[in-house]
Give the backbone structure.
Amino acid sequence: MNIKITPVKTLKGEITIPGDKSISHRAVMFGSLAKGDTHISGFLNGDDCISTIKCFNKLGIEIETEGDKVVVHGKGLHGLRSSATPLDVGNSGTTIRLISGILCGQPFDTVLTGDASIQKRPMSRIIMPLSQMGAAIESTNDGFAPLTIRGSKIHAIDYTMPIASAQVKSSVLLASLFADGETIVREPVASRNHTEIILNSFGANIKSENGVITSSPVEQLNAVDINVPGDISSAAYFIVAALIVPGAEVTVKNVGVNPTRTGILDALKAMGADITIENLSQNGGEPCADITARYSDLKATVIKGDIIPRMIDEIPVFAVAALHAEGTTLVQDATELKVKESNRIVTMIQELGKMGAEITETNDGMVIRGSQQLKGAPVYSHLDHRVAMSCAVAALAAQGETEIIDGDCVGISFPDFYEKLASVRG
Ligand code: S3P
């Protein structure tokens, strides 16, 4: 479906946003492996997390859903049963990479498949460490999904990750639950640590110190209740929108502000953004807060190094902020953007380019010329939810109407995005 966005005079209001995608996936996965019932509130009912629920249903786990409330009837670490048909992860990289870590240690075989985009995303990054642990994973598609995982005996390893990826780290940590000893994962740069926090709350024994994560075997995981905070990746669209629309002020309530996820706030503040964080609270080891953003005179900046994994999913909308900043912004060390739901360096340059933006591709990022007045145009989402929502934010401050072709792909992570956007239009 195509979506039309007209420019706004201003943006005002207070909104809540759907639950964190990374935490929602993990709550269902870990709840399935725990003994007892895991009650989840604030669950993200986006297509990706629904794919995770369906995969665990096929593995014999009963899961009840009602709005954003979910109850997972876990069967313990060794309670999954084989699925007669392949598991379909849809568009979800988190589902396929994390579930692979779980499936390689089961006493049965599983086939994993997904949509056209997932079949182009690299799986060798998990096949390599999991194979070192004794897993038997075959790709009929040259290192890409579909994958056949044969249940095997899993051994502990000491693994130094070549890239910063929470999905790879989590896959190895999940396999470590079935391993015969202490598994160590070494991260080059810190990536989101929800797996470590949430698995420990279920009774796992994972320690983390200076980029070295050690997982020691436990007999069993036990169910806990999880209250999922709002997703900072979804909040980012409203934060950037408020920064670039004159006179705007928007508060996003109850947003997860785990420091491994707040790179976007640090980068925007370095550009002079007026952002305040209030009502900070702790929520099962995950900090959350209300975030208010106001229209600001932004100045160009450089993002590179350690901050990149802390804002990897927000770089498309960060690029929109940079188009409104004075000076030239550089994005470096961001080659991971090329292997997301689309090649986000290429797709963002292409689509914002249709609106008149001047952005140049570099081998590891982009150069974004600031102070640009965009013009509304037809743009294509590439079926990538973050490309669609970033273009919608750009459209708010453009001249004339923008049409987002296949803009309904926002359902992957933010089903009511356009309704929420309408609710803050001045
Ligand atoms: C995620 C990790 C990130 C992120 C993705 C969700 C997770 O991917 O881009 O949207 O939940 O672990 P990588 O680990 O591949 O960087």
